[in-house]
Write a structure and sequence with these properties.
Blueprint: H1 3-30, E1 39-41, E2 43-59, E3 62-66, E4 74-79, E5 85-86, E6 91-95, H2 98-150, H3 158-216, E7 218-220, E8 225-229, E9 252-253, E10 258-263, E11 268-275, H4 276-279, E12 287-292, E13 299-307, E14 324-331, E15 343-359, E16 365-367, E17 370-377, E18 380-385, E19 387-391, E20 396-399, E21 406-408
Antiparallel strand pairs: 1-21, 2-11, 2-15, 3-10, 4-6, 4-9, 5-8, 6-7, 8-10, 11-14, 12-13, 12-15, 13-14, 15-20, 16-17, 17-18, 19-20
Helix pairs in contact: 2-3
């Protein structure tokens, strides 16, 4: 075979190969291959349960300081600033006592006047009692003398005898009236004394109240801690987004107004919220690590102090309809730099679940409000309802599946698997806590 003929054959083969390749590409464009659904198998292992939440620091123990209820507005003449460290008994706020000092003087004057009134009423009663005794003796003597005069009727004229009889009747009438008047005098004198004693009790009560009000105007710290002055919201003008300044020296405070509080910095705690499914993984005493944003290079440890038994009321602007439960973590060793209101991330160790069947959150979906997985059946997938028992950051413990069961990682019921896959909500176990 000549070289020329061999060259022709080679060119023909190359042309046929090119044509076949072009046909294959064209067919692929006309009939693209069916995209496969990614899957994963149910595995068995241990779950390290960790719960994450954001929280805000607060004092474990606080004491409120309120203005005394004196019936009139009060004026601050001294107020410690926010952040001031105080000891138990230190003065935190002081009010102008001028009005109460005036009330004390008036009450003291009324008290002295009432004491004098009682002394006078008792003296008058004593004088009246003595006078009644003298009058009674005199009336009894007059009756006795009149009786003696009447007994001499045979020795005197008829006219004198009649006069003596009339005098006896008058003496007896006077004695009877006097015996009726003496108890009335005593009752009247006792009433005068009782009225004076009532005035004395009222004056003493007013005096004690004024003294107590003056004492209550000195607001002192009931414990060691940090002062936090409250906002002065006493205004007649309100508008949305209005900001209030703290109370300051010279401000007017209504009776019973909340002026400041003392925070016990020795017992700090952080308060956060956890999802409904994480609530079952929490119990008091479990360890926690706290990362405070204001102290980025310092680790703070604590323990779960309390877990709410009822769900918190959902916020109107909340981003999830799932129920939230409050959790409080007490700090083991509060740092002096910590202040109430600081925020941070809390990592709670909920223990470890051993030898559990688990799947990643991406393999669990929500259907009709229940968690489901899609199990491979040949070339198709069928939904199957499951039960979620525990959940970690990357694994979800499940029941109702056998180890090694192949399940879909995307929702095969969607037309486009990568679009709107409808993963399970956090309340059902999907995604991070």
């Amino acid at each position: 075979m000549s070289a020329r003929k061999i060259t022709r054959i080679t060119v023909a083969v190359l042309l046929l190969a090119a044509a076949a390749t072009g046909s294959t590409l064209a067919l692929k464009r006309l009939h693209p291959p069916k995209r496969g659904v990614p899957t994963i198998r149910v595995a068995r292992g241990n779950l390290d349960l960790k719960i994450y939440t954001m929280g805000e620091l607060r004092a474990g123990k606080t004491a409120m300081l309120v203005a005394p209820s004196v019936g009139t507005s009060l004026h601050l003449i001294f107020l410690a600033k926010t952040g001031t460290h105080v000891k138990s008994g230190d003065l935190v706020a002081d009010f102008d006592p001028s009005d109460q000092e005036h009330n004390l003087e008036m009450a003291s004057s009324d008290l002295k006047e009432a004491e004098q009134s009682i002394a006078k009423a008792k003296a008058d009663a004593s004088v009246q009692e003595s006078q009644d005794k003298v009058d009674l003796l005199k009336a009894e003597f007059d009756v006795r003398r009149a009786e003696m005069d009447v007994s001499k009727k045979d020795l005197v004229s008829a006219i004198d005898a009649k006069k003596n009889l009339l005098a006896l009747e008058e003496a007896r009438r006077h004695l009877s009236q006097l015996k009726e008047d003496i108890p009335s005098h005593a009752a009247s004198n006792q009433a005068d004394i009782a009225v004076a004693e009532e005035k004395l009790a009222k004056a003493r009560l007013s005096m004690n109240l004024a003294q107590k009000n003056i004492q209550n105007m000195h607001l002192r710290a009931p414990m060691d801690g940090l002062v936090a002055v409250q906002e002065n919201r006493q205004t007649n003008v309100y508008y949305e987004g209005m900001r209030f300044s703290e109370y300051r020296q010279g401000d007017e405070v209504e009776p019973g107004g909340f002026v400041a509080q003392v925070l016990d910095m020795a017992e700090m705690e952080i308060q956060g919220k956890v999802a409904e499914i994480d609530r079952a993984n929490l119990s008091p005493g479990e360890p926690a690590d706290i990362d405070i944003y204001a102290l980025p290079h310092q680790k703070i440890s604590g323990k779960v102090k309390d877990v709410a038994g009822a769900a918190l009321q959902a916020s109107f602007f909340g981003d999830s309809g799932a129920s939230k439960f409050g959790v409080v973590i007490a700090l083991d060793h509060p740092d002096p730099q910590l202040r109430p209101g600081l925020t941070g991330v809390v990592t709670i160790s909920g223990g470890e679940v051993k030898n559990a069947l688990y799947l990643p959150p991406q393999a669990i979906f929500a259907k009709d409000g229940n968690p489901v997985v899609y199990i491979r059946k040949g070339s198709d997938f069928e939904p199957q309802r499951i039960k979620i028992t525990r959940r970690s950051e990357t694994r979800i413990a499940v029941e109702g599946l056998a180890e090694g069961t192949e399940v879909a990682l995307v929702n095969p019921e969607q037309k486009t698997p990568n679009a709107s896959a409808a993963p399970a909500s956090p309340a059902l176990g999907g995604g991070k806590p």
